[in-house]
Structure formats: structure tokens, C-alpha cells
């Protein structure tokens, strides 16, 4: 069945590329044996529409043209289906190959693999894969949140979305109306940066706190989308990457290794506790809450108060 479909798609592509004028469905049906064998007009129409969509998914540009008599014809112009010369060097090809290996989920893996196949067919040089030699190292970007894919597509297509979001210090989620800009992975967590319509301000949302489905909404963006660098800096700032001062915390021995990796200094206190000085930026309170009773904030006082407020909110839930 797969061979028969591949042959049918190839024949349809050759017909559309080899004609100088648009061909009607009737002419295409008479030129391709598999279409002649279709049991009925409805069966042929369904088969043709699926094949046409498959060829477009593979990258073939198919034009739909209506003649003076109102009949619809199809063709694929050679100049519209010819890639420009590929000028990637070996290092650029290696970077593309590495990027294609990063994604773990099937949908993105298929798209990345298909893109590489098209580029190689067009002359992209083969690059040595360092990960074939050193197989102990392999790049991964984990994506466990169900909200990732719909948000990724919404960012790509510039479509507003709505979703229920539970803040770290809130007992219940609340609905957000967002114009999504980009997704960023930081310290093993995914964040969405975008424009919050209800608050009329730029906001960042952690995907693991999105509950329920992400729903797309019609309409254009109302706020200007910043450049990539600005969005990335915003995500890092809201996630706690940009530190403006330091905090002093007590951490239970044998726990909190992510905190220890960022510590400026570590001092043993005895009785199963250590004292750490860590960078303090926006979002640190939400991060500390995740370690529960293993962390006690000593200073500054405003950070300690924020952590206590978040813990009380969680206890009420």
C-alpha cells in the first residue's frame, strides 16, 4: 500500500510539473492509472484531495487556477518549486543536524528530519556527527507539558490564546488571555513570554502551571512583538536568572542540589543544615517554595515574607 501511494504521488507530481497549462481533475484522472481504477467519482475526489495535500506538505507548490469557463485546473510551476543554491558550510550543516536531534517528541522530530532531507537533496554537505563518536553525550530538551505544542504553534502563527494558570501563591487557577511571543527553556522548565491582555502588560508563564487546555482565539495581536533578544532577557529575568543582590538561606544537608550549584558560598552549620549565599533575582521566592521544609530563608526580610506567603497559600489549597 505504501509503495502504491508513493508511486501515485510521484505520478501526480510529474504531471503537475510537466504541464505548461493548468490540468483539470478530469485530465489528471485520465493520465494516472491509479485514479482510473478508482471505483467512483467520490472515491477519486477523496484520493486526489489527499494526494494534493500530501504533496503540499512535502513542499510542492501547487497552484489552483480558474479558467474563463469557470473550470478549475492545477499545475506546479518549475520556477516556484526550485530551491536556490544551498551555501551552507560543514559547520553550519553540523549545527542544523544537532538542532534536529534536540527534540524528543515525535511531531517535531518528523518535521526536523524532513527539513534535513530536503536540504541534503538540495546539496547541503554531510557533516561529521560528533555524537556518533561520543555517544555518551546527546542533546535533549525535555518537553513534558501538554501546553507546549499548542503554544508553540500559536507563537508561530501569531494567534492569541486563553488558558487557566495557577500562580505559585494562588490556591486556584485563573483564566489568562495572552498574545504569545516565544517559548524559552530555562533550568529544565519551559516558560511562555507574551502580552497579558487583562493586565495590559508583558508577562511570563511557566508551562507546568498551566492547567487544562490551551485554546486559540481569532483576531490579530494588539501589542507589538519585541525582538528575540528582548523576549529572552524578559524570560530570564522573570525566571530569576537576572540577580540584583544575594540572599542567605539555610538548606538541609543532602538536599537542594540545584541551589547548591548556584551558591556563591556554602558553610556547614551542623545538625544537618548548611548556610548558602545565593544570587537573588525576580522569581527566587517561587523557586525556593519548591524545596518545601528543606529551605529556610534568613535574609533579606522581603524574600522571607514572600516565601512564607506562598507557603501559606499552598497550605490553604
What does this structure look like?
The chain is an alpha+beta fold and 317 residues long. Helices cover 40% and strands 25% of the residues. It has a five-stranded antiparallel sheet.
List strands and helices in order, with pairings.
Elements: H1 2-18, E1 23-24, H2 25-31, H3 33-36, H4 41-57, E2 63-66, E3 72-75, H5 90-102, H6 106-121, H7 130-133, H8 148-157, E4 161-165, E5 174-186, E6 189-196, E7 201-206, E8 210-216, H9 228-238, E9 243-252, H10 257-262, E10 265-270, E11 273-281, H11 284-289, E12 295-299, H12 301-316
Helix pairs in contact: 1-4, 5-6
Q: Report the uncertain regions.
A: none
Order of strands in the sheet with most strands = 7-6-5-4-8
Number of helices: 12
Number of strands: 12
Q: Which value, in Å, is the CA radius of gyration?
A: 27 Å
The largest sheet is:
5 strands, antiparallel
Summarize the helix and strand pattern as letters. Answer: HEHHHEEHHHHEEEEEHEHEEHEH
Which structural class should the secondary elements be placed in? alpha+beta
Mean pLDDT: 81
> Beta-strand percentage?
15-25%
End-to-end Cα distance: 55 Å
DSSP helix fraction: 40-55%
Short description:
This protein is an alpha+beta fold and 317 residues long. It is 40% helix and 25% strand. Helix 1 crosses helix 4 and helix 5 packs antiparallel against helix 6 (106-121).
Name some characteristics of this structure:
alpha+beta; 4-stranded antiparallel beta sheet
